Amino acid sequence: MAGKLTAWVERFWYQRQQAPLGLRPFSALFGALARRRRDRFALPGNQYQSPLPVVVVGNITVGGTGKSPLTAWLVEVLRRHGYSPVIVTRGYGGAAKNAPLMVTPTTDVMACGDEALMLARQCQVPVVVDPDRARAAAWATAEGLGNILVCDDGLQHYRLARDIELAVFDGARGAGNGALLPVGPLREPLQRLASATAVIVNGEPWHPSFDAIRQHAPAFFRMSLQPQRMRHLLSGEIQAPDYFRGQTVHGVAGIGNPSRFFKTLEALGVRVSEHVFPDHHRFSAADIVDDGLPVVMTAKDSVKCESFARPNWWVLEVAAAPEEALEQLLMKTLKTAT
């Protein structure tokens, strides 16, 4: 039921050309509250200023845009340039009793959340979970975990001052109907992009709203999510990403934009029976169809399914591939900031 309601709301946000006039006052109220909150943290003493450089990856829309793959790419780039990054994240879906929580590849996913565990395994760097990113940043600094902080999904967490902001959009969805919550998908108005370092679009920016997005973006880059491999969930066996070409599989996705995952499988020549779940869904064995066909899920979902995985369950792993110029901009900006 929750999945169907979410899908209906997102269709309303992303498929309508304009928000209904009668609902716009609700967006205006949300915008006023968001602006007041941001102005409050702009006052002296209301932000935590880390002695380390802080890079924030996030978005101003609701729904999946590809932030976590971009975070993983950013960590790889920073390590290649001699940095020792630490990922700071909220740990959505986790229920840790004591925060900050240091996440390792063996941490219980129910404590840290799916994205945090996925990033800890993919990136092999310290990952710190705390709803209060500023507290997590201060703790990571005090513990000497690294020399640069990467905040995953923290664009609206203004208590943590930042040196670089990367705002991510989905190319097919853009800014939707252009309205603020709850009438549209925007957490902040498009004018907010002017203070970001760069806007990154995941996929081709064909949505009409990108004309307005480009007007406010100080820098604009494209990225794609490239299928890397098919991994067997139980054994860890690795196969090519198109391992199931010409076959029918059950596609399982409990992410912010499941249609992107299904389209990726279809582009690999796979026939997909789609199974959509709410973002950060807590899976049980009963959720997954068991009729003998292969099951292919996202990396984020897989960390919640390992304890009851069946022999025909696989994971499609993807990696972000932004334009090379983005790396050059990031390194140049970091040198200026430090």
Automatic annotation (TrEMBL):
Q: Where are the transmembrane segments?
A: none
Example of a GO MF term: lipid-A 4'-kinase activity
Q: Name one GO cellular component term.
A: plasma membrane
One GO term (biological process)? lipopolysaccharide core region biosynthetic process
Task: Name the reaction it catalyses.
Answer: a lipid A disaccharide + ATP = a lipid IVA + ADP + H(+)
Q: Which InterPro entries match?
A: LpxK, P-loop_NTPase
Functional pathway: Glycolipid biosynthesis; lipid IV(A) biosynthesis; lipid IV(A) from (3R)-3-hydroxytetradecanoyl-[acyl-carrier-protein] and UDP-N-acetyl-alpha-D-glucosamine: step 6/6
Which EC number(s) does UniProt give? 2.7.1.130
Pfam families assigned: LpxK
Superkingdom of this entry's organism?
Answer: Bacteria
Enzyme's top EC category: transferase
Alphabetic keyword roster: ATP-binding, Kinase, Lipid A biosynthesis, Lipid biosynthesis, Lipid metabolism, Nucleotide-binding, Transferase
Database matches in HAMAP family: LpxK (MF_00409)
Summarize the protein's role.
Transfers the gamma-phosphate of ATP to the 4'-position of a tetraacyldisaccharide 1-phosphate intermediate (termed DS-1-P) to form tetraacyldisaccharide 1,4'-bis-phosphate (lipid IVA).
Member of which family?
Belongs to the LpxK family.
Identify this protein by name: Tetraacyldisaccharide 4'-kinase
Q: Which organism's genome codes for this protein?
A: Hydrocarboniclastica marina
Record lineage: Bacteria, Pseudomonadati, Pseudomonadota, Gammaproteobacteria, Alteromonadales
- Gene that this sequence comes from: lpxK
